[in-house]
Write a structure and sequence with these properties.
Number of strands: 8
Helix content: 40-55%
Shape: globular
Number of helices: 8
Strand order of the largest sheet: 3-2-1-4-5-6-7-8
Order of helices and strands: EHEHEHEHHEHHEHEE
Radius of gyration: 17 Å
CATH architecture: 3-Layer(aba) Sandwich
Largest sheet: 8 strands, mixed
Oligomer: single chain
Strand content: 5-15%
Length: about 240
């Protein structure tokens, strides 16, 4: 039995990923900082609720102990993420972004990934087939954002793309440090979720496809890569 933890799994892409992996036979921990929503989601999915705030050391450490007591972990999906908004619900641009906005975004999207990965590495190292999936973004691609012929080029925000580019770097370095694990970053695509005010152009079912696929990658599968549903992406 494969045991999987998904952070931020009480809604959106995390919830859909949990649903698909439960259906595939995984024992799934629904990680959520809101206990009520997390429990409700876990009950609906037939999964296990795990109280987990990725921005809080004590919460993450307690969650790791609970999963260890529950039998260990094979797959970690770092899905929890935020997009900090400024005045008028606009994304902070190079002209307006503040250090506080950057810090707030990085606390969840970057430091949260490090905090959770660090805490669960000992459990993953005990697994016969350990996998880590870091949910990144197409906006993390420096190649695409610097290409005037690519749609991503016109996204003006700073904090969110910078945080996801950092997630890609973490993915590469973790993959090199732990060659026995399959550690990859994925781009779900512009999906309708609360993160973007449901302005995305695809469904959570479509967005979860690459997350689910990489969560089930075998020992001979890729590692240290950056993928969307169509294949490898440029950094």
């Amino acid at each position: 039995m494969t045991t999987t933890l998904i952070t931020g799994a009480n809604k959106g892409l995390g919830f859909e990923t949990a649903r698909r992996l439960v259906a595939a036979g995984h024992t799934v921990y629904v990680g959520a900082r809101d206990a009520e929503r997390g429990r409700r989601a876990a009950e609906q999915l037939g999964a296990r609720f795990l109280h987990l705030d990725v921005t809080d050391d004590a919460s993450v450490e307690a969650a790791a102990k609970a999963v260890e007591a529950g039998g260990g972990l094979d797959v970690l999906i770092n899905n929890a993420g935020i997009e900090t908004r400024g005045e008028g619900n606009s994304v902070p641009t190079a002209a307006t972004v503040t250090a506080a906005q950057m810090r707030n975004t990085f606390e969840t999207n970057v430091f949260g990934v490090v905090r959770v990965t660090h805490a669960f590495l000992p459990l993953l190292e005990r697994s016969a087939t350990p996998v880590v999936v870091n949910v990144s973004s197409g906006l993390a691609s420096l190649t695409h954002l610097s290409d005037p012929d690519h749609p991503a080029h016109f996204y003006p925000g700073v904090a969110y793309p910078a945080s996801k580019t950092t997630v890609n770097m973490l993915t590469v370095q973790y993959a090199k440090a732990f060659p026995s694990m399959r550690i990859n970053a994925v781009e779900p695509g512009f999906t309708k979720t609360d993160l973007n005010g449901n302005t995305g152009v695809q469904t959570v079912e479509e967005g979860a496809e690459i997350i689910v696929r990489m969560a089930q990658v075998g020992p001979d599968g890729p590692t240290g890569g950056y993928f969307d549903a169509k294949g490898a992406l440029p950094w």
